[in-house]
Fold this sequence. Notes:
The chain is an all-alpha fold and 288 residues long. The chain contains 13 helices and no strands. α3 (29-52) runs antiparallel to α4 and α9 crosses α10 (206-233). It starts with a helix and ends in a 6-residue tail after the last helix. The model is unreliable at 284-288 (pLDDT under 50).
Amino acid sequence: MGYFYAFFCVLVWSFIPIISRLGQITLNFYQLLFWSNVISTIVLGLLYFISNGWKTNSISIKDYLYNLILGSLGCALYYLFLYYGYYNGNSIEVLIIQYTWPLQMIILSSLLFKEKLRTSKLIAVLFGFFGIVTIVVKGDFKQIYFSGISISLLVLLGAFCFALFSVLSKNSKVELFHFTFIIFLGGTITSSVALIFFSTFQFPSAKEIVPIIANGLLINGISYIFWIKALKSISVTSSAVFVFFTPILSLIWILIFFNEQFYLSYIVGGFLVLFSGIYCLKEKSSKI
């Protein structure tokens, strides 16, 4: 079931480029993130209420604050740094750095929780990452250039935020619906502060409502439930390998919805990612 949970996350996350284009007609990324987190918080709050009724699972103030911080990392700061990079830097550079978070997650898990990682498996994961790079640059590696060290570091920091969020969430003892409600509450608080300082409040237009609801309901909200369940069910390395399939599916949707040009490098990159996934997943998942 852990592999099914991870695949569901990859499937819904692959629609992020589509939703981002459709959800930012009049809204900027601060406003989009704010509304998405608000909807996710409401949805997860309702799911928590349905699963527990009027009974509340009490946790200490220390644990509550800790989970709010996790939500700030994984539901707000990751996206804020990422969106800043896309707005100010080279999109190819940012996309490549963005997908270092599964690699960072594997390293953090090995360092913090001593999850076993064989050298051969790490090499296979690196092959998967190289496959993503091949897809992103369409086989032309001359397209990779760094627009500025500060932008690159901020995007790398954003990737680190989500990697750290994922690794620490794996060992959360808080009931799942309660935990996901708290983290999106933390994300809403952080995105609200960012909205106040760097943008202005604005309601979405009629055309933006459906993609924003879809983003808050599935791509962010419910997908995080499945992501936490995947992390608790299979190894961090196996979960990370599944993430590498996200840009491949995203590419398929972009080709279908926006009729963009197809390149032979997509097949080469996809084969590398597929090889990485098959090799890593054929081994027994190591447990923390």
